[in-house]
Amino acid sequence: MMLDQAPSFASVARRLGEPQLELTLEELADHVRREINFARFISLRSGVRKDVKQLRTDAERLGKTLSRLSKERLLDLPFPRELELSRTRQSTHNLVEWCDKSLSVMSVKGGVRKQSGRTTCAMIVIEAWTYAKGKAPRANNQKVHEICDEYWRACGCQSIGEPRNWRRSMDDALRQDRLRSHYQDQIQRHTIAP
């Protein structure tokens, strides 16, 4: 099979040794695709940090402007009673403090967008493998890495290259027992013959 040709869910099921998993794998592929699509809406740390810095700058500027205003200067202006100057100044001060606290706990590293969908893909393959073989694979299982890449491509994604690049995703997936049990239930429920 050529690498640029997307494999089918049937070929992935055959590689796992359970052809009856084809429809289940196809159905679970939507979980991978959804995760990839939703990842576009998650902000990077650097973007959030930049926005909080900008908010701090703006709040500080507003606080300075409010402190220049005195009641005498505002007597001639129709100033709403709900907008008490002292409470507004205090709220602005609190906002600056919140920004400072947030920036102190936020990482200064820009971060790299996590490869969305890959851990989910690995979880599905791990649980399908466990269903077919009776035992979960280890994170360094080369054959499972290849099956992960094949399933990833069947889901409509490009190969991540070297199959051993799946090791980190496999490690992450193997640590998430609660989510894995969800996929385990899905696979067992869909593969039981009517």
Please describe what this structure looks like.
This protein is mostly helical and 194 residues long. The protein folds into two domains: 9-41 and 114-191, no CATH class; 45-105. The protein contains nine helices and no strands. The chain has helices at 9-16, 22-38, 45-68, 71-74, 85-105, 118-133, 142-154, 167-175, 177-191. It is elongated, with a radius of gyration of 27 Å.
Main sheet properties: none
Q: What is the string of helix and strand elements?
A: HHHHHHHHH
Spans of at least 5 consecutive residues with low confidence: none
Number of domains: 2
Q: In which range does the helix fraction lie?
A: 55-70%
Q: Give the overall pLDDT as a whole number.
A: 84
Distance between the termini: 33 Å
Please state the CA-atom Rg, rounded to the nearest Å: 27 Å
Number of β-strand runs: 0
Strand content: under 5%
Count of helical segments? 9
Helix/strand/pairing category: mainly alpha
Shape: elongated
What can be said about this structure in brief?
With 194 residues, this protein is an all-alpha fold. It has helices at 9-16, 22-38, 45-68, 71-74, 85-105, 118-133, 142-154, 167-175, 177-191. The protein has two domains: 9-41 and 114-191, no CATH class; 45-105.
